[in-house]
Amino acid sequence: MTTPLTAPAKPPVAVTGRGPWQLARAELRRRTSVKISLAVVVLFLFMAAGAPLLGALGGWSPEEFDKTAIDPYLGGQPLGPLGGISADHWLGVEPVTGRDLFARVVYGAQVSLLIALTATAIVVVAGTAAGIAAGYFGGRTDTVLSRLMDLTMSFPSLIFMIAMMSVAKDVNRILLMTAVIGLFGWPGIARVVRGQTLSLKHREYVDAARVGGSGPWRILTRDILPGVAGPVIAYTTLIVPGMIATEAALSYLGVGVRPPTPSWGQMIAESVSFYDTDPMYFIIPSTCLFLTVLAFTLLGDALRDVLDPRGSRT
Question: What is the dihedral of CA 283, 288, 294, 296, to 10 degrees?
Answer without folding.
Answer: -170
